[in-house]
Design goal:
The complex is a heterodimer. By secondary structure, chain A is an all-alpha fold. Chain A has helices spanning 15-40, 60-88, 90-95, 100-111, 125-149, 155-160, 164-191, 193-201, 210-216. Classes of the chains: A mainly alpha, B alpha+beta. The A-B interface holds A 33-34, 37-39, 41-42, 52-66, 68-69, 72, 149-153, 155, 164-165, 168 and B 2, 5, 8, 35-36, 38-45, 47, 61, 63-65, 67-68, 71, 75, 78-80, 83, 85-86, 146, 148-154, 226-227, 251, 254-257, 261-262.
Amino acid sequence: MTPTTDDRPRRLHPLAVRLMHWTNAVAVAMLIFSGWKIYDDYPILGWLRFDDAITLGGHPETALQWHFFAMWIVTANGLAYVAHGFASGRFRRRFLPIRLDDVVATLRDTARLKLSHDDLTRYNGVQKLLYVGVVVVLALQIATGLAIWKPIQFSEVAWIFGSFQSARILHFAGMVAICGFVVVHVALALLVPRTLAAMLTGGPLETSAPAAAAETARPSR
Amino acid sequence: MTIRRLGSIFRRPMPVGRAVMDDNRKLIEDIDRRGLLRGSLSLGSLVMLTGCDAGHEGSVQTALRAVSKFNDAVQAALFRPNHLAPTYPVDRVAKPPRFNAYYPRDEVRPVAAATWKLELAGRVGDRTPWTVDRIWSEPHEEIVVKHICVEGWDYVGQWAGMPMRRFLERIGADTRARYVAFRCADDYTGSIDMATALHPQTLLATHYAGRPLEDPFGFPLRLRTATKLGYKNPKWITAIEVTNEKPGGYWEDRGFNWFGGI
């Protein structure tokens, strides 16, 4: 990926990223809540049912309609996000490199309640790992979803995930992972409200060139 | 569909004020028919009610149905006419098959072989009804394929019967017509697209695991198409129509996706 030649200072979250973030948030919520209703018709875990009050659709047929509506939004939006991330250099600037010692240092600082958020434009190791991770999980959700939706027409995709039932279990596990991400993500956004504001307004300008930022991005030790 | 769902299907709608009923009678009847008012409060109904009027509620449902229709077209485009569903060794066959209908098993009304007739209608050359003897005398083919229910369960079944394609040719059906519709002894209805009807793994099944179908599983005639969800496989079939006008179906009319392909 070639670096972008535009040297003007950028906002932390350009408008395109903000739009795609909130579109994704709404569509993923639709998928999760309708997915719970669909799950209830044939639960994977005997002890786990989702009450109608926390599901979307009210009935399996309506939940399925929501699910197969929101899947288009998440897929189209996700493709646009990934294309933008590579083309703009954002993925490289924000998410790379992911270093193990950085992740460990962030976790240690978090445990000591010493995590610094002075510069929102520099992600710590855990942030990088989680943001890349959730994008990968969402991509896998689309793949396992395809294997469940079209196990015959896309039998090649379904074969990768084993049987129809194993694709269902993986799709469920992906949902659990996304819910886990959402809990951590929303909790931290609420703890540091500037990050939430930044995803609405665009946030601060980047402070320095990407290369320099990467050198100093690690938390103070 | 399992028995558990029956409770919600026939549950009474929530009470609505008389004046509101009168003002919006047609709309409410429409919504009620589609089952939007049944059941308990949910995120879905919350979302639909944010507009604070029934019109908004209807428009969300209309939009979802439009997307479902779009998904029908996508699935028709994705359909691979000669791509075969995976088949399985006979030792994986479930015996007996799993029962499913829109009512519980003890309400199955067996069909008498002696009086059963298969009526034919629509764009077919020879509308002479078929008897059990006639359909049994035709060469059978057998498929060992998965039955996948929209609910999420599946099992391997061993089905035999007359390929739908050969049946349509035998009755002089217009195979360029768009749909094949089914009516059943238990008042179930269903329909499939012609491309699926002509697929090599679409059978008018009369046998399961080497024996004639048993009463709870659709005797004497049921559809078994390997490329569609369970609810697209009507049982106890009594009439087949070839048509260009899109037919609905029992579950499809209640909001399940019409194409129902897998």
